[in-house]
Design a protein that fits this description.
single chain; six-stranded antiparallel beta sheet; 15 strands; D-amino Acid Aminotransferase, Chain A, domain 1; binds pyridoxal-5'-phosphate; globular; D-amino Acid Aminotransferase, Chain A, domain 2; nine-stranded mixed beta sheet; 27% strand
């Protein structure tokens, strides 16, 4: 594992075995930090500006003053990608509150840490992509948007992990989290779309979804393709009765869904998915 990994930590490339964060870092002790996952294709980070903007917005939202500006982070990303052995890969950019006293108060932390990892990532195995993902709706709910704004991409993923454990326990490929009102929020690390009567539908982010950059890209591609698209609240019923369903995310890219809680989609991969996936592939290749 991680044979190819390249790490940049607080200003310089370091061998992965030496890329260590202190046990006193509040990112570890309290999940006090923010992050981004970015793919690079042919050594070019895809949608880098959008990811940097979201990273810095997340940091501002949690009052974390990053020790590097967007240009310096972009330079760190470029240095990390250049040192990676392959042309395509995945980047993780993480900013933590840094080392501090054991209490929760962030004012005890003197300097935030920032690190970048480049590595391989196969989030969804090839056979699952081929046959379509089998989803469950998890009992674990998404954190309420009035508790933690879903636009903050923070280091707190525990309820997503619990949902993923539920999926693992029943042999499903992924779990959908509902919000407190029982409506669809998102997957554990991806956004969800359905197609019904020729229209593309996805929950608005206020329902508890991360403002996914792949989600945004797919909505733009749908506009270019003339596919009517709408951000609208969705119930489990809408997933069960959809013509098509698919997931989007930087790690996942576009994954067709074969079934949700044992209800099979009318088509997988359906015609709308195939059209959008082809456009997405063309976009990242360009
Ligand atoms: C909870 C969650 N939702 C959605 C997404 C998809 O977002 P993006 O397309 O920006 O990768 C992610 C990606 O990391 C995620 O963690």
């Amino acid at each position: 594992m991680h044979e190819k990994a390249v790490c940049w930590l607080d200003g310089r490339l370091v061998p992965p075995a030496e890329a260590r964060i202190s046990v006193f870092d509040h990112g570890l002790l309290y999940g006090d930090g923010v992050f981004e996952g970015i793919r690079f294709y042919r050594r070019r980070p895809f949608k880098l500006q959008a990811h940097l903007e979201r990273l810095f917005d997340s940091a501002r939202a949690i009052a974390l003053d990053l020790p590097f500006g967007p240009e310096a982070v972009a330079a760190a990303v470029a240095e990390t990608v250049a040192a990676f052995p392959d042309d395509d890969g995945y980047l993780r950019v993480v900013a933590t509150r840094g080392v501090g006293a054991l209490g929760i108060d962030p004012k005890n932390c003197t300097r935030p840490s920032l690190f970048v990892i480049a590595d391989e990532l196969t989030m969804v195995p090839g056979p699952v992509r081929e046959r379509g993902a089998r989803l469950i709706i998890a009992a674990t709910r998404r954190l309420p948007p009035d508790g933690l704004d879903p636009r903050i991409k923070s280091l707190n993923y525990l309820n997503h992990i619990l949902a993923r454990i539920e999926a693992n326990q029943v042999g499903a490929d992924e779990a959908i989290l509902l919000n407190g009102a029982g409506r669809v929020a998102e997957g554990t690390a991806d956004n969800v779309f359905i197609v019904r009567h020729g229209r593309l539908l996805t929950p608005p982010t206020v329902e508890g979804a991360l403002a996914g950059i792949t989600r945004e890209t797919v909505l733009e591609l749908a506009g270019q393709a003339g596919i009517p698209a709408l951000e609208t609240p969705l119930a489990p019923y809408d997933l069960y009765t959809a013509d098509e369903c698919f997931l989007t995310g930087t790690g996942a890219e576009l994954i067709p869904v074969a079934e949700v809680d044992g209800r099979r989609m009318a088509a997988c991969p359906g015609p709308v998915f195939r059209d959008l996936a082809a456009r997405y592939t063309a976009l990242v290749a360009g």
